[in-house]
Fold this sequence. Notes:
Elements: H1 14-19, E1 34-40, E2 46-52, H2 54-58, E3 62-67, E4 111-112, E5 118-124, H3 127-136, E6 138-143, E7 165-167, H4 170-176, E8 179-187, E9 199-205, E10 208-213, H5 218-229, E11 236-239, H6 255-267, E12 271-274, H7 277-280, E13 290-298, E14 304-315, H8 329-332, E15 337-340, E16 344-346, H9 360-378, H10 382-388, H11 406-417, E17 429-431, E18 434-446, E19 452-459, E20 464-467, H12 477-489, E21 496-499, H13 516-539, H14 550-557, E22 562-569, E23 580-592, E24 598-608, H15 615-634, E25 640-641, E26 646-647, E27 665-670, H16 694-706, H17 717-720
Parallel strand pairs: 1-12, 10-11, 14-15, 14-16, 20-21, 24-27
Antiparallel strand pairs: 1-5, 2-4, 2-6, 3-5, 7-15, 8-13, 9-10, 9-12, 13-14, 17-18, 18-23, 19-20, 19-22, 23-24, 25-26
Helix pairs in contact: 9-16, 12-13, 13-14, 15-16
Amino acid sequence: MMPPLGPPLDRVDGRKKVTGGAKFAAEHNLENMAYAAMVMSTIPSGTIRSIDTAAAKRSTGVIAVISHLNAPRLGPAPGQPPAAGQPGAAAPPQQQGNFAEPQLIPFSDNKVHYVGQRIAVVVADTIEHAARGAELVKVTYDETPARLDMQQFREQGVDRAKSLFTKGDADAAFASASVKIDQIYRTPHEHHNPMEAHSIVAAWDGDHLTLYDSSQNIFAVQQTMSRLFGIPKENVHILSQFVGGAFGSKGSTWPHVVIGVLAARMVNRPVKVFLTRKQLFFGNGHRPETQQRVALGANPEGKLLAMIHEGMSQSNDVCTYAERFVRPTKAIYAVDNMRAINPIVSLNLPSPTYMRAPGESPGMFAIESAMDELAYALKMDPLQLRLVNHADVNPEDGKPWSSKSLKECYAQGADKFGWSKRNPEPRSMKSGRDLIGWGMASATYPAHRSPASARAVVKSDGTVTIYTGTHEMGMGTATVMSQLAAETLGIPVERVRFEYGDTTLPPTPISAGSMTAASVGSAVFGACDALKKRVAEIDGVDPATINAESYHTILSKHYLDDVEARFDAKPPQQEPHATQAFGAHFVEVAIDQDIPVVRVQRMVSAFAGGRILNAKTARSQYFGGIIQGIGMALLEETHFDKRLGTFTNVNFAEYMVPTNADVRSIDIIMVPEEDHDVNPIGVKGIGEIGIVGVAPAIANAVFHATGKRVRDLPITIEKLM
Ligand code: MOS
């Protein structure tokens, strides 16, 4: 009944977006609204000695200057458990893994943990007056020695994520293997840089809060506000209708959100906060720097005998985030002896967070680069090496896969790319002045799912509205959910309205981890299926006889204005299968012999992500991931100055992201995959797998072209000179 490849419907909100009808958080303007501008710390470690606000307060239009000196303490009342981030605190269970709780509660004391910490806010009548006021706030500090270099403190790395995984005896197996690779790979700090800057509009009415937030996690923001401001959850109304990209950076209640809400309460007016591009680089999360050792041992036929993956990533003392780069290690290849661990090193840098395919994306750069090195050591085709080590069951726990079509991805991708014509010798392929290189890598990302709820209401005119809290960050949720509802009910999609982005609607999880379609989709499917059955029951007919016209006919016949059904979808307690999406990238690079700029000439990427709800929005998601992967491979890096303790290239002139000129031919193959076990709708999620494996596929192509192995991203001209 459900085709594995859904129809390529245009976005249901496309017209609104291109005509300006889509309202993003910062576009909400309320009566008597004031504006807030952040003051950021300029030292990485120490305490604030004084804050001189006299000049700021005299400045035109300034209403208030708020800092730890005059802000009320936020958090649970005395006697209650401490707030997260405070000593002895634990995140509430429903938020664990969500990173929703602000781990650094703004203005709670005079401590400075990193450069860019929001230490004060200026509220004024216009955004310009607020910004001018913020410039006039004078802060003095007592500096303490800062921890700024991951290398220097690597001995103090801790495994806060409890990531250690062992199987067999990896060190012994590695020692006795006849072919070995043992290398260090590095990935830099990267920032998400969504087009839409983080912003909020907060308004209080007594002890009721309304908050327009550019968020991918509204229910967690609601929970956090309830805890911090000591008001019932029902009093907190969060709205997030349109989000202009997030990539993980809008999944947490970052300090500016709490500060804006606090400011609105203190000045007794609605307040708008709109962060500048520079401010976004400090304190809204980033993908932290990693250093990874991968050691692979194999027999002469290429069979992996040992796999060791360890290293470290940057974190800090006010967050719990660890970059889990060993997650894919446990899922990608069959190997009996494995050790994997991803400790963190706590430094005086802003808090890192999820960024598109956290863990998998940096982790697979290391693994898939090492696999390519192993293929050369074995004098074996890199694709053949992957086939020899194909994991027929999940390497982590031996569970069977709910479905896995990686071999089809390899076969179809290789065929379309023409991989069999590759001359394996580095520097052997040329075109004019260009060295040509062909590289490949595998991709994988887990098929997650969280509890989600939805309500479906059919009216006697035969139209249906779906209500569910979720978010739309541009990935096409509103479109695919409308399609899924229409298909389940057996009505044309034009008769479906999809209402979302609002905490008064049925609860849904964070839109992250590639799990929105699977989680919210299971709820929408459940609600529509229940609604269809209910309508059939009203008329005493078999649900199979219900068609597009039945809703109008039956409701009219029984004098009903509307009928509704709600469904609370939950993942099973015990999951007998391992659930994971897979894919493969094939890349051609062209590199000028004198000025070694790497151009990604063409890519063929094949993915199997379960059922695809909409071929068009899915392709767009894959494109987005791949293009971000090209950025990761060649351009993206947030430079950190270890003397000043600050990120330096904090603007779009110096933080490079791919433009159209960097992107040439990308050919996406969607391998049809039916999966009856992953969830009721057979969807695995595709938001992140696109980026996984792109950087190593490009690095491998660069090696093939030049004979130079670059093990630290990005692959810039200097590294190839
Ligand atoms: Mo994502 S990094 O799961 O928004």
